[in-house]
Structure formats: structure tokens, C-alpha cells
């Protein structure tokens, strides 16, 4: 089957099954190009919550499809590659989080959406990189547990010096491959460029940035900026839409190591097969779903700054 035929068949099956195709900003270019909606974790979870489709085809990693299943009970959620996981999400488990909660009784637990449904169910409120500062600011408590991303947690703490954090020491292996030395080097090679990075980067890398934001935050920042050249400190998939949105601007990936192998797994063939077989599905038990939904709903209710 030619690529054009695969695309046509995907669109045909999406219609026939009343399905919506959601793709994260880190997906392969051809997957982003065929998606109904692309976005960051926050935008995609909001889309999953409000879609009228019967089926959600989630092109992303497992925790994102789980969030869609939590927020859209009754809908079928397909994750075309069942093996697309997130190593950071796998760094925290329920028993470990329970043990940390037992050491700090009464503290609210704020959990990054890059986590399993079961871990969300053990949490008070979720956050994404786009709303993390607003979520932590909204807490009445001064002290909190933050899991699983130590880098995102430390970046929020810098914005909110009045809050006191107990960190889970998880991290994104892709973002941690970007070193401060490499950033210094590439900044020196392009002194006219702005350096923007994701808060999943290590603190010494974020400290070198002109702007730190979520993936969608990068689109709006670069589109609005009068600067013509940007060094990008996040996963390579973001370049597709950055270049499409601003063809007159130059975008340089801060390091060739910024590729998340899990985000690169899903191909057009995988999407087609998922729509043909209606598998693999992602489901969450009702007991876990209800508790995880409460944490996600609290997050969605926090007004953005
Ligand atoms: P967002 O900026 O889309 O929230 O996500 C970053 C990420 O690592 C998703 O896996
Ligand atoms: Fe997980 Fe990092 Fe890949 Fe995002 S980029 S899915 S946080 S490993």
C-alpha cells in the first residue's frame, strides 16, 4: 500500500468509526500531519474530555491514552503502539508514593500527568508542564509532595519561592541528555538566537534559557517573538509545527540526543492497523479511574495565569 493510500484509508476509517485522531507534539511529522488535533499534554487531555467521538485514537505514549480513558469513560481509547511508554512515568509506583506520603502525613500530592493512572489515583491533584505553576499556586498548603519529575518540580519551586517541595527524584531521560555544556556551545555558535527549553530539562539547562515553557507554549512564544532564530531544548518532534507555523524563522535543535524513542514508535501503518482491528485498547479499572479522574478534574478546574 502506498503512503497516500494508507492516509486515505486512515481518514476513511476514522469517519466510519466516528473516531478522532489526537497526536502529541513529539510524534513523527507524518503522524502530526494526519491528526485531527495536535497539542501538548494539557490540550490533549482537554480534547479527550470534551470530544463527541466514540473512539479516541491516541498517538502518544501510554499515560496519555490512560488520561483519555480516565476522562472519557464509555469511549474506546486506542493506543496504536502498546509498547509506547514513558520511562519517567515508570519511575514512580503506587507503593513508593504511599511510602513517601506516610513519611510526610497530611501533605498534598501534586503529580505530573506523566504518571500511571494508579499513581494519579494516589494523588490530590495533577499538573502538566503548561499549568504546573498555577496548580501549585492554587494549593492552600505551603508544603507539598511533587512527583515524579524532579526537574519540573525544581523549576516550579523557582517561580514559587514561598512553597516548600518534597521531590520524587524522577526525570525524563530524553531531556536530561541535554547538558549545560552543550547549550553553552550551541549558544556560542549562534549568538543571535534565543534559547528556549522545556521544564523537564535539568535545572542548570533551564537556568541558561531565555524562556522555559511547555511544548505548546513554545509555538506561541516563537510565533509572537520578533526574533528570527531559536535554539530548541525539547524533543525533536516539536520542530515540525514550529517550522510550519513560522517558515521565515530558523529553529535549531539544541542537541541531536533530544529524541524520545517512545514518541517515535507510532507509524501511519500502526494507526491504520489499530483502526482496522480496533486494538490495542487502553482501559483503566473503575475504582482507579474515579480517583484518578478526581485528581485530573481538580487540575482542569484551576484557572490558568
Ligand atoms: P508537554 O509539554 O506536552 O506537556 O509534554 C512534555 C512531555 O514530555 C510529554 O511526554
Ligand atoms: Fe516520557 Fe520524556 Fe518521552 Fe515525554 S519525552 S514521553 S517525558 S521519556
UniProtKB/TrEMBL annotation:
<keyword id="KW-0963">Cytoplasm</keyword>
<comment type="similarity">
    <text>Belongs to the quinolinate synthase family. Type 2 subfamily.</text>
</comment>
<dbReference type="GO" id="GO:0005829">
    <property type="term" value="C:cytosol"/>
</dbReference>
<feature type="binding site">
    <location>
        <position position="215"/>
    </location>
    <ligand>
        <name>iminosuccinate</name>
    </ligand>
</feature>
<feature type="binding site">
    <location>
        <position position="24"/>
    </location>
    <ligand>
        <name>iminosuccinate</name>
    </ligand>
</feature>
<comment type="pathway">
    <text>Cofactor biosynthesis; NAD(+) biosynthesis; quinolinate from iminoaspartate: step 1/1.</text>
</comment>
<feature type="binding site">
    <location>
        <begin position="198"/>
        <end position="200"/>
    </location>
    <ligand>
        <name>iminosuccinate</name>
    </ligand>
</feature>
<dbReference type="InterPro" id="IPR003473">
    <property type="entry name" value="NadA"/>
</dbReference>
<keyword id="KW-0662">Pyridine nucleotide biosynthesis</keyword>
<dbReference type="InterPro" id="IPR023066">
    <property type="entry name" value="Quinolinate_synth_type2"/>
</dbReference>
<dbReference type="GO" id="GO:0046872">
    <property type="term" value="F:metal ion binding"/>
</dbReference>
<comment type="function">
    <text>Catalyzes the condensation of iminoaspartate with dihydroxyacetone phosphate to form quinolinate.</text>
</comment>
<feature type="binding site">
    <location>
        <position position="86"/>
    </location>
    <ligand>
        <name>[4Fe-4S] cluster</name>
    </ligand>
</feature>
<dbReference type="GO" id="GO:0008987">
    <property type="term" value="F:quinolinate synthetase A activity"/>
</dbReference>
<feature type="binding site">
    <location>
        <begin position="112"/>
        <end position="114"/>
    </location>
    <ligand>
        <name>iminosuccinate</name>
    </ligand>
</feature>
<keyword id="KW-0408">Iron</keyword>
<keyword id="KW-0004">4Fe-4S</keyword>
<dbReference type="GO" id="GO:0034628">
    <property type="term" value="P:'de novo' NAD+ biosynthetic process from L-aspartate"/>
</dbReference>
<dbReference type="Pfam" id="PF02445">
    <property type="entry name" value="NadA"/>
</dbReference>
<dbReference type="GO" id="GO:0051539">
    <property type="term" value="F:4 iron, 4 sulfur cluster binding"/>
</dbReference>
<feature type="binding site">
    <location>
        <position position="129"/>
    </location>
    <ligand>
        <name>iminosuccinate</name>
    </ligand>
</feature>
<feature type="binding site">
    <location>
        <position position="260"/>
    </location>
    <ligand>
        <name>[4Fe-4S] cluster</name>
    </ligand>
</feature>
<feature type="binding site">
    <location>
        <position position="41"/>
    </location>
    <ligand>
        <name>iminosuccinate</name>
    </ligand>
</feature>
<keyword id="KW-0808">Transferase</keyword>
<dbReference type="InterPro" id="IPR036094">
    <property type="entry name" value="NadA_sf"/>
</dbReference>
<keyword id="KW-0479">Metal-binding</keyword>
<keyword id="KW-0411">Iron-sulfur</keyword>
<protein>
    <recommendedName>
        <fullName>Quinolinate synthase</fullName>
        <ecNumber>2.5.1.72</ecNumber>
    </recommendedName>
</protein>
<feature type="binding site">
    <location>
        <position position="172"/>
    </location>
    <ligand>
        <name>[4Fe-4S] cluster</name>
    </ligand>
</feature>
